[in-house]
Structure formats: structure tokens, C-alpha cells
Amino acid sequence: FLITIQDVNAVFVIENPYVGKLETSILELVQHVVNHGTYHRGNITAMIRQLGHSSTMMDFVLYLHMVKKQGE
């Protein structure tokens, strides 16, 4: 999907249930989705810890290091 976009700064209108119509760019929307995923990962980590379990590392840099090491 993203590779087909010719102008990431193109503005379009979306309906937000809290504030109504908003003008936003595709770039801003993608940044929102990435950031919102971070929010949910934090919530899930907190719930896991509240249940007495330890959470796992979720750092992307750590993931890249582990994948590289597996390929060696």
C-alpha cells in the first residue's frame, strides 16, 4: 500500500469520534499508527507485569541484533 502512494503529504479528511472532521496527511496518519502501536504494547506489558509475569524485550534494535546473530 505505502509504495503506491505518490504524495505522502497529500491531505484528506477523516472523521474522528471525539473532535469531528480532521484534515491530515498520509504521513501524519502513518506516524499516528506507529505511535499508537507503541501505546498498546506498553499497556500489554503493564498488564503482563500486573499478573506477576516478566515481560519480554520489545526493542527493534535488539530484534535486529538477534536476527543477525541467528544468521551467523
TrEMBL record:
Query: Would I find Metal-binding among this entry's keywords?
Result: yes
Q: Name one Pfam family in it.
A: DinB
The UniProt entry, under InterPro entries, shows: DinB, DinB/YfiT-like
Q: What SUPFAM superfamilies does the record tag this protein with? A: DinB/YfiT-like putative metalloenzymes
Please list the residues that bind a divalent metal cation: H36, H40
Q: Does the keyword Iron apply?
A: no
Which keywords label this protein? Metal-binding
Q: Which domain of life is it from?
A: Bacteria
Q: Which family does it belong to?
A: Belongs to the DinB family.
Its protein name is Damage-inducible protein DinB
